[in-house]
Amino acid sequence: MFIPIALNGRVGNIYHPLSTELYILPLCTRQLELNLKFLSYVVTLPPMDLVSLALQASSNLRMRAMPSWLMDVDWAIRNLPGSHEHLHTLQLIDPASIKRLTHGIRTMTLQQLDHNIDMMHKLRLLRGRLEPSKFFLQFADTTKPSSQ
After folding, report:
1. Number of neighbouring beta carbons within 10 Å of residue 9
2. Which residues touch 13 (CB under 8 Å, ≥6 apart)?
C-alpha cells in the first residue's frame, strides 16, 4: 500500500523519506522523464519519418493552443511542485537541451522532497539530514574487512 502512495508526488506525503532514501522519484516525475526520453529520441529521427511528422503536427497544434502531446508534456513540466521549467518550441529542442531539462526536473524534484521533509512536523527528526556522498561510499567500500 505504501509504494503507490510514495510514488505519488503529493505535497505533505508522509512517505517522502522513503522516496529519498530509496531514490524512488514520484510517479509524475518518472512519467515525465519517460516522455522526455522519447522526445529526445524522436528529435533525432529524419524529418520524413512518420513519428517525426507526428511530432511536427503536435508542435503545430501546440502553437495554435490546441490540445496535443507536446502541450501535455509542457503542462506536466509547468505543474510539477516548485517547477520553473518549461518546454521550448520544437525548433529549439535538441537532445542536449532535453538532457538539461531532465536533469533540472530531477534535481528540482529531489529538492522539493527534501523541502517537504523539512516542513512536515511529523518528520522533524529527519530535518537537515545529509545524504551519503560518493566520497563516503567509496571510503566505506575500501574499509570492508577482507575474507581470508
Report:
1. 22
2. 5, 6, 19, 116
Radius of gyration over alpha carbons of the chain, in Å? 20
Looking at this protein, which amino acid is placed at residue 25?
Answer: L
Q: Hey, what's the torsion of the CAs at 50, 55, 61, 64, to 10 degrees?
A: -130
CA distance 43 to 55: 8
pLDDT for residue 1 is more than 80: no
C-alpha cell at 1: 500500500
Q: What is the DSSP string of 78-116?
A: HTSTT-------GGG--HHHHHHHHHHHHHHHHHHHHHH
- Interval 71-92: pLDDT, tens: 998 888 888 877 778 888 878 8
Residue-level length of the chain: 148
Rounded-to-integer distance, Cα 32 and Cα 38, Å: 10
